[in-house]
Amino acid sequence: ILLGDADQELPAEWRFFGAAVQGNTELAIELLPEPESPLSTYNRFVLQPDTNHYEAAQGSLNGDLAELLEVAAYATGLRDDIASDFDLDGELLALALATSAAADLELTNTKPAAAKLQRAIVAADDKSPILAAVLSGQYADLMISTPGVAPTLAIQQYREAIRRAEGTVLPNLIADLHMKLGMAYQNAAHGQRGLLLEAVNAYQVALHS
Question: Read out DSSP for the chain?
């Protein structure tokens, strides 16, 4: 599942994750393990983000899950603000920082957004390379759209994203990253043959992914 393969046969206790990844919300809710546990309370809200589930979760969660609840509430539009820092680590911290960065970008605050994405990439790298790859791609996108940033920085980040995505079974991710890498090379080329050849190579990989 972490590599993007939700179609394989899963142990019974993992079927909830498979259903959630495939977007089968009704089945995922039915398969929630220990339905009254704190984790299942949080997951139920993520699957059905409404005011009732939000208030129920606020009254019963603490620690990491309480922080993640507020992140999810912002992401689903149930609250208007989000913290800038979190007492989390690993992929949980990465998810929270990426969501907070998105909030910054809505306000065109690119500098704090970039800093949060950088921290998110580092936090996710060991625990979830695929998440780190997605975040690296988002950081590169931000560099591309930020005036005054050298194109080589975006190229480096796209290449890092591709490296992190090795082994994934998400062909759309690989194709998207190579396509954007090719565009970055092309925009930076200014007629330089070497960079144009790199762009062509990236486009070819994207087409065959």
Answer: -TTS--SS---GGGHHHHHHHTT-HHHHHHT-SSTTSHHHHHHHHHHS--HHHHHHHHTT--HHHHHHHHHHHHHTTS-S---S--S--HHHHHHHHHHHHHHHHHTT-HHHHHHHHHHHHHHHHTT-HHHHHHHHHHHHHHHHHSTT--HHHHHHHHHHHHHHTTT-S-HHHHHHHHHHHHHHHHHHHTT-HHHHHHHHHHHHHHHT-
Give the tokens for residue 144. 């591309």
pLDDT exceeds 90 at position 22:
no
Total residues found in the chain within this entry: 209
Distances in whole angstroms, Cα of residue 39 to Cα of each of 34, 45, 49, 56, 197: 9, 10, 15, 13, 50
> Distances from the Cα of 159 to the Cαs of 18, 95, 144, 155, in angstroms?
30, 21, 14, 6
Quick one: pLDDT at residue 12? Answer: 83
Instruction: Convert the pLDDT of each residue in 81-109 to its tens digit.
Output: 999 999 999 999 999 999 999 999 999 99
The CA-to-CA distance between both ends of the chain, in Å, stands at 19
pLDDT tens digit sequence for 115-158: 999 999 999 998 898 999 999 999 999 999 998 888 899 999 99
